[in-house]
Design brief:
Layout (H helix, E strand, L loop, with lengths): L1 H10 L9 H24 L4 H28 L3 H30 L6 H26 L3 H12 L17 H28 L2 H31 L14 H19 L5 H28 L3 H30 L3 H25 L13 H33 L4 H27 L4 H26 L11 H28 L1 H12 L2 H13 L4 H28 L6 H31 L4 H15 L15 H28 L4 H25 L3 H31 L1
Length: about 725
């Protein structure tokens, strides 16, 4: 009988069934209890031959019932691997049941044999254990059971992301996180509805897809939650913002992982057309991003060796990608084994090139400086992180209820539990969205900055009233030249910080607060310098002009910060981005006018120190890769436009240099004024050189332009310094 049963199992043919898997599961549990009881009865009746015969027949009947139900369940299982496990478990029950009967027969013939009862008990235990394994395998094979268990594990695996995140999880900005949460919540809602609907209709495949959708959506929600919490903390004024490295090493690592996974999909002979095309899209996207990052890094680095390495690495990645894409196109036209083999072979050079690039980019010299997050900032994360944890707990509980309902759709208590857990998840998502919106970075800092600027405006108004009444007392903390240098230094620092603020206000909410604080930190030195300089000037018209220029700068900055606050770093707030751009440009113009006013004042005093400082700053801006250069040139102008203006400025500098040479012998008092004009022309030329370098496609030409302008600046500085000495000697 045992051989016959094993042969039936080996055939792999299973009887059809019109019962649901849940009904079969209930029958299996009852049959398992029956066979386990029958095996215990065998042990107890071994001393009575008549009872043993009856118990043996009961064991046979119980075994047949269990095997019949198990065969029907195996027939409803589509997963071949799970089906094989079920067959293996049935074979184990068959063999152990046969061994129990054989042991019982042997023991009943000689009850005095040593260790006989222990052998019989061990055989009965083996039957029970094999029954338990069969029930476990069949339960796991039940529709949705494996999928629910996998979904719960994958969701729980994201919980560590919410342990006070101090590093970015992905590349999303703050408002992109909010958009992602809303988008993922829609996917989660669809998955939850799909699960309930599939359970009611006993649609097992739809149930499995819905469970997978729920898991994916929750994982996405948790990642966005962790990223938003990180951005909340890093944007806090008590935290120290990180400094980006030459390359984003995390981006390189993520791209390498994505490319590696896509290459594995291409190497898999079972991949269908959709999977192949999807892998090709992923590879194209990430290799393009890596090549662009290499191009940017080669332009920024001052090391010739690193520059060459980045350029060569980008070429290697691009060339190997092109070859792989060619093989993918060939594969797409004919999915033959030879084409698959060539496509798989073409992935190796790409993986090697990407691995080599990532290894080079992972050098400490290219690393970013991570943000230092304060204890206060960590506490500000709690509300967002708690929502994320509630989403995880609620989703897992919801899936546990769905797991039971997949087997027992009529279980009313589980339907109630499913509804309760679904509501918990929905409420947690709503709370998460509310918290992210309320904790938008930079708003508090913008309000504080506006208060600071209004305070400085009141001080300027008070000084202006005193100046009109000729009651402005001269301040002696610095000389007039010292106050003028303070104004120029503060103005220059403000100019440097306009572009970071503009960028943060439009698309980087996490940097908005820090950018505002840095810009406004120079408002007080600027105003105190302006009032101090005005108090040391005797001419009322000059006093009024200086204070009015400073007031205009403060008012423009207030308008800029209000626009930045309204924009909030939200890339989708397009309606206020134009205002941010306009106020930034207006602030740049007004600060430049204030600087020109102060420079004219110092020139009248015969001082060349401020001119030399201005020259030094212009030269430094060309030798350092500062963010203030980004967007500081007109992108609508062509290389020829910049070239024309630069040639004109260079001719003017040459003319002024000739005039200075002539005046040194005839009218030395004019030398400082001419030096100021030359400084202005050089600043204009240096500014245009940034646009010329950016618009030329030839990197070598761009570098030569920069070096030539720097060299010219050093010569102009020496000439201005010489003019100052000559004037003093006269």
């Amino acid at each position: 009988n045992i051989n016959e049963t094993l042969n039936i199992l080996n055939m792999g043919e299973f009887p059809p069934s019109d019962k649901t898997y849940g009904e079969l599961q209930s029958e299996l549990n009852a049959a398992a209890v029956g066979l386990s009881s029958a095996s215990s009865e065998i042990v107890q009746s071994v001393e009575r031959p008549d009872s043993l015969a009856r118990s043996s027949r009961q064991l046979g009947d119980a075994f047949n019932r269990l095997l019949g139900v198990s065969m029907e369940m195996a027939g409803q299982t589509e997963d071949r691997e799970t089906q094989s496990l079920m067959v293996s478990s049935m074979k184990s029950v068959t063999v152990n049941s046969s061994k129990l009967l054989g042991t019982a027969k042997s023991v009943s013939q000689d009850l005095t044999r040593p260790n006989a009862k222990n052998q019989l008990a061990a055989a009965a235990r083996a039957v029970t254990e094999s029954i338990n394994r069969l029930v476990d395998v069949c339960t796991e094979a039940a529709p949705g059971q494996k999928e629910c268990a996998a979904a719960i594990r994958s969701i729980e695996s994201t919980r560590p992301l919410l342990n006070s995140p101090t590093e970015p999880v992905n590349e999303l900005g703050y408002f992109a996180c909010l958009d992602c949460v809303v988008e993922q919540s829609k996917g989660l809602s669809e998955g939850m509805s799909g699960m309930a609907s599939a359970v009611k209709r006993s649609e097992h495949e739809q149930f499995a897809r819905s469970v997978g959708g729920v898991a994916t959506a929750v994982q996405g929600l948790v990642e966005c939650t962790a990223q938003a919490a990180y951005l909340v903390a890093v944007s806090d004024e008590t935290s120290v913002a990180g400094r980006p490295g030459l390359v984003d090493q995390a981006q390189f690592a993520r791209a390498a992982v994505a490319i590696d996974q896509a290459c594995r999909a291409l190497c898999d002979s079972s991949s269908n057309q959709q999977q192949v095309l999807s892998a090709a899209t992923v590879i194209a996207k990430h290799t393009s991003a890596l090549c662009n990052a290499c191009r940017v890094a080669s332009g920024k680095t001052a090391s010739p060796q690193a520059k060459r390495h980045f350029v060569q690495a980008a070429k290697d990645v691009a060339n190997s990608t092109a070859k792989l894409v060619k093989e993918i196109k060939a594969l797409d036209t004919d999915y033959s084994e030879s084409n698959r083999a060539r496509c798989a072979a073409a992935t190796a050079p790409l993986q090697d090139a990407v691995s080599s690039l990532c290894q080079f980019a992972d050098s400490p010299e290219f690393a970013s400086v991570p943000a230092r997050i304060s204890a206060h900032a960590r506490r500000s994360q709690d509300a967002v992180l708690d929502c994320g944890r509630n989403i995880i707990s609620g989703s897992c509980s919801m899936l546990e209820s769905a797991k039971v309902l997949a087997l027992q759709p009529q279980e009313r208590s589980q339907w109630q539990a499913l509804a309760a857990h679904s509501k918990t998840v929905s409420d947690s998502i709503k709370s998460l969205v509310t918290n992210i919106r309320e904790k938008a970075p930079g708003q508090r800092e913008c309000s504080a900055a506006l208060d600071t600027l209004n305070k400085q405006l009141r001080e300027l108004d008070q000084a202006a009233i005193q100046a009109v009444a000729q009651e402005l007392v001269a301040r002696k903390t610095h000389s007039l030249q010292g106050y003028c240098e303070q104004i120029e230094n503060s103005s220059t620092e403000m100019l440097e910080r306009l572009e970071p603020l503009r960028t943060a206000a439009k698309s980087e909410a996490e940097n908005l607060g820090h950018s505002v604080i840095q810009l406004v930190s120079y408002a007080e030195p600027l105003v105190s310098g302006a009032v101090g300089a005005a108090s040391n000037v005797t001419e009322s018209r000059t006093q009024a002009a200086l204070l009015e220029h400073t007031r205009t700068v403060m008012e423009t900055l207030a308008l800029l910060i209000q626009a930045a606050k309204n924009s909030g770093g939200n890339p989708r707030a397009m309606n206020v981005h134009g205002e941010v751009d306009g106020q930034t440009e207006l602030a740049r113009q007004n600060i430049t006018e204030l600087t020109a006013c102060v420079r004219e004042l110092t020139t009248q005093q015969g001082a060349v120190g401020p001119l030399l400082d201005a020259m030094c700053r212009s030269i430094c801006r060309l030798t350092e890769h500062r963010m203030s250069l980004v967007g500081s040139y007109d992108e609508s102008d062509s290389f020829v436009d910049y070239q024309t203006r630069m040639v004109g400025a260079a001719k003017e500098i040459a003319r002024i240099a000739t005039d200075m040479t002539a005046k040194s012998a005839t009218d030395a008092s004019r030398l400082v004024q001419l030096g100021s004009e030359m400084c202005q022309k050089y600043e204009q030329l240096a500014q245009d050189s940034v646009g010329a370098s950016a618009t030329t496609p030839n990197a070598d030409v761009a570098n030569r332009i920069r070096l030539a302008v720097v060299e010219l600046g050093e010569g102009v500085s020496e000439l201005i310094k010489g003019g100052g000495h000559c004037r003093l000697a006269a």
